[in-house]
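Still learning. Any example?
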Amino acid sequence: MSRTPAAALACCLLLGLSRAALGAPPAPVAEAIAAERIASPAVSFVVLDVESGQIAASFNPNTPRSPASTIKVVTTFAALDSLGPAYTWHTQALLQGALADGVLDGDLILKGGGDPYMTLDRWWSFVHELRAKGLRGLGGDIVIDDTAFALPTEDPAAFDGRPHQAYNAEPSALMVNFQSVEFRLVPNPGGRRVDIAATPAPVNLAIDNRVALMSGPCSGRAARVAFEVPSAEWDRVEFTGFLSPQCAERSVTRVLLSAPSYAFGTFVQLWRESGGTFDGKWRIAAAPSTATPFVSFDSLTLAEVVRLTNKFSNNLMARHLFLTLGAERFGAPATLDKGVRALSAWSQERGLPLSDMEIDNGSGLSRTARISVLQLAAVLRAAYHSRYAPEFVASLPLAGVDGTMRSRLQGSQPGSARLKTGHLDGVSGIAGYVTGASGKVYVVVSLINDAREGAGVGDSVHNALVDWTQAAL
């Protein structure tokens, strides 16, 4: 769809919304609100016909709300609409020095391009591309160039005091494997010990294993293991406690090291496993202009990244999309301010009513982001009629089938509800598309903000709204 028809469509939607009468919640939804003892001012929802824009039901539709992860529908659609589904990021290896007989007499520079999904297997493929081009020995240092992003220093514990949880990982131009390490704890009676294996095993991460084997059943003291990260650099972990030989294998996954340190540590691990040699040091620096490009490694396509971001509500990937939007529109390096300005400019070009929306990082992991259900509905309707509708709609979790909706609304007809979910303490929401009994498709957005409640407050209200849409419309 060209820009002019798209803007006209959005304007028609706004006119339709302004004429719609606001009513009370449908009876099943009102009953769910009452059953959860949620004050009505805390609830907002809208259900509208995706073709005509006519509102079928709404309640407090213009109230700005904390959207949690439902805001990802804005970030992901803006990325698809602005960059196209075939857009890719590039991770580069550059050589500073002479390469002779497979040995580099100089530094290897690893330059990040903001790839949101450089998983461990893809990082392994990157290493093997270097080996396939004949590089086998590194005589100098490894330099990490993460200058594609310019971000302020953040306190990873500021959001909820859990800095090592995956959802709190911070963006980096060279982000590998979401900066996560999985530890598997396995009782080893034959060796009279408890084995701990890390995947991956960065060469610069130390594991202090103080877990002892304890006889008896797997309960009480014999089933208690504590995990700590006692170093400020997050480069040492400590396990203490006891495990019985009767205990099953258990695992724990945490964000460790810094993003550049993690990239270095895992690269060297995989490099040596592939047969490469390296005995140098590492540092963070911009690639010099004299460096020679050696390998450029492409990311997944944007369409694939959007699907993974929405299906599994990945905060880090959404933040990378947000930063990429800013860099592509206003130039490198990517900054939060450029991301905000890029979304604002895009929404104006699209004719979308987002001028008073507050968005800080594009993921929803935020205490300050605000948007109304009517604004989210406008974005979803524009997405449904966009040229990349198939890619966007397919990225949303299917109720009762996959992603974050896999265990919810399992009684729904398969494929009849595609909904992005959102949860924070005191916040819950859904945003997406629901097919009614008539066969018509409706945009359904529901947000509840109630600071008195914990995470997941009001899920039964959202479910009731979807059920009503499917049965009554």
